[in-house]
Amino acid sequence: MSLIPNQAVPMLELDLAGGGTFSLAGERPQQFTMVVFYRGLHCPICRRYLSELETLLPEFEKRGVSVIAASSDPQDRAEQAKAGWGLKNLRIGHGLSIADVREWGLYVSRSNGMTSAGVVEPDLFNEPGLYIVRPDGRLYWGTTSTMPFGRPHFNEILQSLDFVIAKNYPARGDA
To answer: What pLDDT, in 10s, does the model give residues 1-35?
Structure first.
């Protein structure tokens, strides 16, 4: 399933590593909520990607953007990622079902066993995606990948948000 800009995204309610819950419908950002779907504890590229995001959280907050990272990892693996990757402030949602993953338009992969990070891949898991959602739950911007590589750079997203917010730039791709 492919999500369409200016249309509602699926519900997203998750438990968070470290405690608490996340509800996309309950978010009240000034501008947007950015949902970063990562592959899981087994992915060394996700570790670098989310570590970079952790350092840039204040920049997203300055722009009125709330942020969450989420995966199909179960709680124990999400807790390991949060602690082991030094993610003190980034909210880490866990337990996405494969049905939820598909509803969000993410690709699903099968395990190839042990990764270069020394962690076994789950039997099934989501590939990366990034969605920027308006406060009313409509999609503004989305991108997905079939591979762990080639993700949007967070500094470029920040620059784009500066332009988008200043110019009240409309969502694209809904024709």
So the answer is: 689 999 999 999 999 999 999 999 999 999 999 99
Digit-coded pLDDT (tens) for 111-144: 999 898 889 999 999 999 999 999 999 999 999 9
Q: Contact 117/47 with Cβ under 8 angstroms?
A: yes
Would you list the domain boundaries of the chain?
13-167
Q: What are phi and psi of 77, to 5 degrees?
A: -70, -35
User: 0.90 cut: is pTM over it?
Assistant: yes
The per-residue DSSP string of the chain comes to: ----TTSBPPP-EEEETTS-EEEGGG---SSEEEEEE---TT-HHHHHHHHHHHHHHHHHHHTTEEEEEE-S--HHHHHHHHHHTT-SSSEEEE---HHHHHHTT--EEE--SB-TTS-BPPSEEEPPEEEEE-TTSBEEEEEE-SSSS-PPPHHHHHHHHHHHHHHTPPP-S--
Domain 13-167 has CATH 3.40.30.10: yes
